[in-house]
Design brief:
This protein has 334 residues and is of the alpha/beta class. It folds into 3 domains: 3-133, 3-Layer(aba) Sandwich (Rossmann fold), CATH 3.40.50; 142-202, Helicase, Ruva Protein, domain 3, CATH 1.10.8.60; 210-329, Zinc Finger, Delta Prime, domain 3 (Up-down Bundle), CATH 1.20.272. Helix content is 59%, strand content 9%. It contains 17 helices and 7 strands. It has helices spanning 3-11, 26-40, 46-49, 60-67, 89-100, 120-128, 142-152, 159-169, 173-186, 195-202, 210-218, 222-234, 239-260, 266-273, 277-287, 292-311, 316-329; strands spanning 18-22, 50-54, 77-82, 106-112, 130-133, 156-157, 192-193. Strand 3 (77-82), helix 5 and strand 4 form a beta-alpha-beta unit. Helix 5 runs parallel beside helix 6 (120-128). 30% of the residues are buried.
Length: 334
């Protein structure tokens, strides 16, 4: 079952004794579990009727015993098992056995990261639990989701503002929603959020931002890269954040090179890496500017820079300027 179908059933008041949430979109998992909790566990009874276990440390027998426990002063109890994939094999099998005849007074919620649904235990869960796939949205789906989220809060947001947020933060809904909530608070009574609001709050300079730094590095233009870097630092951009964004950028270039070496088409590269069409051609061209060997070296340089920024007394500006010099030219000094 897709997450959107799960939401439809919840809104219709349909619940089952066992849910299995899995996938890479944490926002959907947290929201889905939250909806179950809000339905069956009141704030006054949460200490008695809500139990949370973690697969890496939990005992499956204790989970089952808790699931069979009678709720206190309520009709239902909720038992949550996070990191279900880390439960021992025998533990998983015991949980599957419970799912064959679950307690009618308990909602058991199993949560896992991306797992191989072909494995025996997950095939068995498909037969006894409501399996909910929480998959990350594709690039083109994110703006629709964010706009609907903002509309539901009584405001609107320009598509250009969403694209800028998306380009800055990626497709992680947790991060996007967090920044969107800040934006709605930031604009106060203003009804429509635009690009200017995003630029002011998220720290994107009108003149230079991290994406222009990516482009300058992609063209191996050192002077422009240094100019952009200096202005970003002057406008308050965090040094560690710049290194993180560069790591994301060069990891993307490495993945593009890997896929292209397998003769994957440009459009398929975009789909696999979830790169917006607007940025795809430029990203592929930039990947051609660096060899795989160079990118591996750059990843080590980025790690070293991150360590220096967090532990060294050296000027952060000097650390970053030296980093760009090494990336573009391979030299350690001018």
């Amino acid at each position: 079952m897709k997450y959107q179908d799960f939401i439809k059933e919840i809104l219709a008041g349909k619940f089952v004794p066992v849910y299995f949430f899995y996938g890479d979109e944490i926002y959907f998992i947290d929201e889905g579990v939250g909806k179950i909790e809000s339905k069956f566990v009141s704030s006054s009874s949460a200490n008695f009727n809500r139990d949370v276990f973690y697969g890496e440390e939990a005992d499956a027998a204790q989970i089952v015993n808790t699931a069979f426990s009678i709720p206190m002063m309520a009709t239902q109890r909720v038992v949550i098992v996070k990191n279900f994939q880390r439960l021992s094999q025998s533990g998983k099998e015991l949980i599957v056995k419970y799912c064959n005849r679950p307690s009618p007074q308990t909602i058991l919620v199993l949560i896992a990261e991306n797992v191989d649904m072909r494995k025996k235990v997950y095939v068995a869960l498909k037969k006894t639990a409501q399996v909910v796939e929480c998959k990350s949205l594709y690039d083109a789906q994110v703006p629709v989701f964010i706009r609907q989220y903002v509309n539901d809060k009584g405001k609107d947001i320009r598509l250009s503002a969403i694209h800028l947020l998306q380009a800055k933060l990626g497709n992680s809904l947790n991060e996007l929603i967090n920044e969107t909530d800040k934006l709605m608070s930031f604009v106060s009574d203003k009804q429509v959020i635009d690009v200017t609001d995003v630029e002011e709050l998220v720290g994107i300079s009108r003149n230079y931002n991290v994406f222009q730094l990516w482009d300058a590095l992609g063209a191996r233009n050192l002077s422009k890269s240094l100019l952009i870097l200096r202005q970003m630092l002057e406008t308050g951009e965090r040094s560690v954040g710049i290194v993180t964004s560069l790591t994301t950028y060069f990891l993307r270039l490495w993945r593009i090179r890997s896929l292209k070496s397998q003769n994957v088409s440009n459009s398929e590269v975009g789909k696999k890496l979830r790169i917006h069409q607007f940025f795809l051609q430029a990203s592929i061209k930039q990947a051609q500017q660096y060899s795989t060997k160079e990118i591996k070296k750059i990843m080590r340089l980025l790690l070293d820079a991150d360590i220096h920024l967090k532990s060294s007394y050296q000027s952060q500006r000097v650390v970053l300027e030296l980093l760009l010099l090494q990336i573009v030219t391979g030299k350690k000094s001018i």
